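Field log, afternoon session.

UNIT: design team B
ACTIVITY: writing a sequence onto a fixed backbone
BACKBONE:
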């Protein structure tokens, strides 16, 4: 950490770009080896079908055992290959983040991604007078947030300022995070898939808070749970001759009546669930399990 006091920001970013570039090359070579190994296993399995004799039970057993062994080995290699691919992708992303950091220090605006801010703040009179937003602006210079909520918070701070009581806490946070470049970049890397998202978390919370068609209706919910078991049981008893068909028909009729009466609320609930699924998809962030937030605190290269 002592070297950070004498190394300029540009040099620091260049060091990290070189480091992650080497990491990316290493993981790329490993990925190619795993790809070749997977291909070799497939070819070996195909060849074994023709090479191993199948004229007797022993030969068939040997072939089956060998193929099972290859399938297990292939599954293990696929799992390891996926981990290498994730590490390769992470190294490339970290290299790009440091290249962006260097471009920000050198005011190379064309190399920076255009982060969008809420239109109501961008169109404000103060923001337009001071040119706070846009490709070459203060917002573009200082904002590294990828999530919509993060970009909104930065934009609101520029336009509306910070309450005086919050300033000491903000300064303490800045002081604590100032030397944790690796930690900050790991968090930024984890949110890269959300960089182009303009969807607020309110959309997600609204979907999650939407009322269920069966919420607070214990009798209907109980019927939905019990009815399938009753139908299957009555159908089975009818097949073996213990019961006539009319009990099963009666329960089936009740199901149709309930479904007809509840069809609108069920469709509304289904539509809400589908909307929630699409909304959650915008917030899905694939994070390498080996790079958790706990490990972020150690990444201070």
């Amino acid at each position: 950490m002592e070297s950070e006091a004498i190394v300029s920001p540009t040099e620091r970013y260049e060091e990290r770009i070189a480091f992650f570039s080497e990491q990316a090359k290493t993981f790329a070579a490993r990925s190619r080896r795993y790809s070749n190994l997977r291909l070799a296993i497939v070819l070996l399995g195909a060849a074994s079908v023709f090479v191993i004799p199948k004229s007797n039970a022993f030969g068939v057993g040997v072939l089956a055992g060998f193929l099972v062994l290859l399938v297990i080995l292939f599954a293990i290699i696929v799992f390891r290959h996926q981990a290498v691919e994730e590490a390769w992708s992470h190294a490339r992303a970290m290299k790009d983040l440091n290249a962006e950091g260097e471009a920000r220090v050198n005011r190379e605006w064309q190399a920076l991604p255009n982060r969008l801010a809420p239109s109501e703040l961008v169109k404000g009179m103060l923001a337009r007078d001071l040119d706070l937003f846009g490709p070459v602006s203060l917002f573009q210079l200082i904002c590294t947030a990828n999530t919509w909520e993060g970009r909104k918070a930065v934009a609101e701070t520029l336009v509306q300022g910070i309450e005086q009581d919050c300033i000491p806490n903000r300064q303490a946070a800045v002081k604590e995070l100032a030397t944790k470049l690796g930690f900050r970049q790991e968090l930024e890397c984890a949110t890269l898939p959300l960089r182009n998202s303009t969807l607020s978390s309110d959309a997600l919370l609204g979907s999650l808070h939407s009322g269920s068609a069966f919420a607070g209706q214990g009798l209907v919910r109980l019927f939905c749970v019990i009815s399938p078991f009753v139908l299957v049981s009555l159908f089975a008893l009818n097949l073996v001759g213990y019961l006539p068909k009319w009990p099963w028909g009666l329960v089936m009729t009740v199901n149709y009546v309930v479904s007809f009466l509840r069809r609108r609320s069920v469709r509304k609930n289904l539509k809400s669930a589908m909307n929630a699924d699409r909304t959650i998809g915008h917030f899905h962030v694939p994070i390498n399990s080996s790079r958790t937030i706990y490990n972020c605190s150690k990444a201070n290269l």
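LOG NOTE: The radius of gyration is 30 Å.
NEXT ACTIVITY: expression trials, pending approval
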